[in-house]
């Protein structure tokens, strides 16, 4: 029983991490039809900057922890917005080229990170509480997973509020639904592209810093590992659907953890099987628009 | 009657192959590109590696350039060839030739299964799904240490391999094998491009709906092209294993697919000779930039210049971005456009730009 609870909650925490990465990917794809391979680079840079901030302020204090998360979000947002303005915008409506440019950016960025921070993982120790456990129904849950779950919950709530209650959010939702119609109404959808990139980058940045604290290390390849699972999550959830991304994140991560615990470490493989099954049964994903 | 002009590509191609075939017997030095004279094992190994990657780039170009399939999992089939042969030689103790066929068969099976599932979606989702499959392959290779050697990689079991293909002294023979592989892959790709199958796949790339309205089955054609491309990649993987006397998990990973994509885009999407040039140029640049990174001149630079310049992949990534943004035809597309302009002919969109047209056409058709 306690193993099951532990597995489920760790799965939920991992799902929270996937969601932080996948939410931006899914919004960007939904609005702009760009598959953003550079999303992993946003995450990695944020994690490294978050690490530097935490080192400067004091790693074991909560202030350092919160500031490192904020710095990560800011760095992710700025990096993503610059990417959109400099690389994506000049290639407007040329989707394959946009994908290729983000591939090149991720390629170059990972090499640059290795050049700056070295090829070996950089370790970090956060506040002591993160390394301890809390007992739930007899299972000792590492506290870092609670932080991930809470952070993803806040980001999800913030995104939903933003998309439902603000004018810009409304334009983005309308743009995902039918971009031609929004343009026909005289609204310049392109202006919201940078915004969507910045939001996605900020979410990935938060995810990056938290992933660093959860894994207690950061390396230049942190982003690329998470990105592949985020891709799987966005396809399973349905491209462009935020709810789909949230549901699929939890589904994918819990399944992965359960398979890792009870089926002898086959989690990664099971996830790909799930992807294949979803594609065969519902090619548009669980909550995708087009069947 | 065929004019001399029609036969020109054939003559040039045959001449290039002959020149490449006699290179190991000559004493030529190309300073700055090859590490030594052409007969030395170091230069031969580099040139062989160029050919293996040229073959891989050709197979990828068949998929992207002809069928318009943007796959991020092509390394899976390359790795299937390399690991397949390695495992068959290790576990089944077969002689080389049957082992090669077994590895190719394995590559085909994997390509059919993954291709059939991935073809359920198209465009960008297709790219994501192929990436996920390649990642699963990579995970399988890394986890099953007993069979694949895990992170350490798998070294070639030379028991079943003829002596003339083993060791540094026989680099020359391996070079000829690599040359043969690239020629075979080129001929297969040429044959597909000229066949009804290739025309159908290309037509589906241009306008899928129209092909279906004509009562043809583009998906089957695309799947066959996908499998043939996978088979060619496996062949390149087999040559890679023999050449390197082993293979590492990176041969299955997403990074290799991206490398191949960079090669093809750099050379020019849709041009067979572009893929070859891209593969060769990339491999040599990668090798030379690594040497350059260790040079003293670089180490004396201030940090802000030294760090980027000592990372070959950073330079190649930036080069790739610049090509995509400003030279979408790649090397071959640019040269082709220049030649056409000189002859006063119209210049069609080439390279990625041509793919893009078909992409928007598909969106409108939907």
Helix-strand blueprint:
The complex is a heterodimer of chains A (291) and B (366).
Chain A: H1 2-32, H2 39-57, H3 62-88, H4 95-117, E1 122-123, H5 128-131, E2 133-136, E3 139-142, H6 143-165, H7 167-177, H8 179-184, H9 190-215, E4 217-218, H10 222-237, H11 242-262, H12 267-281
Antiparallel strand pairs in A: 1-4, 2-3
Chain B: H1 4-22, H2 41-66, H3 75-92, H4 96-118, H5 124-143, H6 145-148, E1 154-155, H7 171-194, H8 196-206, H9 208-213, H10 218-244, E2 246-247, H11 254-267, H12 272-293, H13 296-299, H14 303-309, H15 312-326, H16 330-342, H17 351-365
Antiparallel strand pairs in B: 1-2
Textual characterization of the structure:
The complex is a heterodimer of chains A (291) and B (366). In chain A, the strands form two sheets. Chain A has a two-stranded antiparallel sheet with strand order 1-4. Chain A has a two-stranded antiparallel ribbon with strand order 2-3. Chain A has a domain at 28-223. The relative contact order of chain A is 0.21. Chain A is mainly alpha-helical and 291 residues long. Chain A has twelve helices and four strands. With 366 residues, chain B is mostly helical. Chain B contains 17 helices and two strands. Chain B has helices at residues 4-22, 41-66, 75-92, 96-118, 124-143, 145-148, 171-194, 196-206, 208-213, 218-244, 254-267, 272-293, 296-299, 303-309, 312-326, 330-342, 351-365; strands at residues 154-155, 246-247. A two-stranded antiparallel sheet of chain B has the order 1-2. The longest helix of chain B has 27 residues, at 218-244. At the A-B interface, helix 4, helix 10 and helix 12 of A face helix 5, helix 11, helix 15 and helix 17 of B.
């Amino acid at each position: 029983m306690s193993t099951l609870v532990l597995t489920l909650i760790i799965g939920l925490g991992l799902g929270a991490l996937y969601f932080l990465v996948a939410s931006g990917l899914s919004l960007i794809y939904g609005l702009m039809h760009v598959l953003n391979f550079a999303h992993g680079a946003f995450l990695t840079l944020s994690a490294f900057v978050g690490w530097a901030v935490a080192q400067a302020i004091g790693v074991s204090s909560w202030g350092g922890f919160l500031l490192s998360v904020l710095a990560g979000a800011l760095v992710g947002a700025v990096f993503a917005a610059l990417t959109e303005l400099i690389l994506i915008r000049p290639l407007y409506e040329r989707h394959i080229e946009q994908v290729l440019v983000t591939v090149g950016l991720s390629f170059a960025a990972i090499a640059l990170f290795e050049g700056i921070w070295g090829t070996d993982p950089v370790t970090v120790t956060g506040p002591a509480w993160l390394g301890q456990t809390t007992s739930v129904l007899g299972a000792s849950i590492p506290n870092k997973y609670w932080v991930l779950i809470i952070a993803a919950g806040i980001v999800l709530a913030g995104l939903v509020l933003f998309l439902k209650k603000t004018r810009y959010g409304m334009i983005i939702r309308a743009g995902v639904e039918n971009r031609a119609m929004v343009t026909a109404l005289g609204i310049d959808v392109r202006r919201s592209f940078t915004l969507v990139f910045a939001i996605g980058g900020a979410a990935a940045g938060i995810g990056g810093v938290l992933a660093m604290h959860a894994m207690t290390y950061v390396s230049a390849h942190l982003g690329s590992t998470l990105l592949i699972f985020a891709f799987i999550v966005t396809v399973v959830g349905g491209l462009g659907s935020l709810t789909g991304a949230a549901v699929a994140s939890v589904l994918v991560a819990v399944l992965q953890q359960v398979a890792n615990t009870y089926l002898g470490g086959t989690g990664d493989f099971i996830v790909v099987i799930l992807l294949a099954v979803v594609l065969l049964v519902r090619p548009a994903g669980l909550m995708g628009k087009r069947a | 009657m065929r004019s001399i002009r029609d036969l020109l590509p054939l003559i040039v191609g045959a001449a290039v192959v002959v020149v490449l075939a006699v290179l190991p017997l000559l004493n030529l030095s190309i300073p700055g590109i090859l590490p030594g004279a052409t007969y030395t094992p170091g230069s031969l190994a580099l040139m062989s590696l160029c050919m293996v990657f040229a073959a891989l780039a050709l197979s990828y170009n068949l998929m992207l350039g002809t069928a318009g399939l943007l796959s991020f999992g092509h390394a899976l089939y390359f790795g299937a060839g390399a690991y397949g042969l390695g495992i068959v030689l290790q576990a089944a103790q077969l002689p080389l030739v049957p082992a090669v066929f077994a590895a190719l068969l394995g590559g085909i099976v994997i390509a059919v299964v993954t291709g059939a599932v991935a073809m359920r979606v198209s465009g960008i989702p297709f790219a994501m799904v192929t990436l996920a499959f390649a990642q699963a392959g990579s995970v399988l290779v890394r986890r099953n240490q007993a069979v694949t050697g895990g992170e350490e990689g798998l070294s070639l079991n030379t028991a079943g391999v003829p002596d003339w293909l083993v060791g540094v002294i026989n680099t020359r023979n391996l070079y000829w094998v690599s040359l043969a592989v690239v020629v075979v892959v080129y001929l297969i790709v040429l044959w597909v491009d000229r066949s009804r199958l290739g025309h159908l796949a290309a037509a589906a790339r241009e306008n899928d709906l129209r092909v279906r309205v004509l009562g043809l089955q583009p998906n089957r054609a695309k799947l066959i092209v996908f499998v043939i491309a996978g088979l060619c990649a496996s062949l390149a993987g087999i040559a890679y294993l023999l050449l390197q006397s082993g293979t590492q998990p990176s041969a299955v990973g997403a990074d290799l697919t991206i490398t191949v994509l960079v090669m093809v885009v750099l050379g020019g999407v849709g041009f067979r000779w572009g893929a070859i040039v891209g593969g060769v140029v990339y491999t040599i640049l990668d090798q030379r930039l690594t040497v350059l990174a260790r040079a003293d001149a670089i180490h004396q630079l201030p940090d802000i210049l030294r760090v980027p310049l000592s990372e070959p992949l950073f330079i190649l990534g930036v080069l790739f971005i610049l090509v995509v943004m400003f030279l979408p035809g790649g090397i071959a597309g640019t040269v082709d456009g220049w030649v056409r302009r000189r002859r006063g002919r119209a210049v069609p969109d080439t390279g990625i730009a041509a793919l893009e047209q078909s992409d928007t056409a598909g969106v409108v058709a939907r």
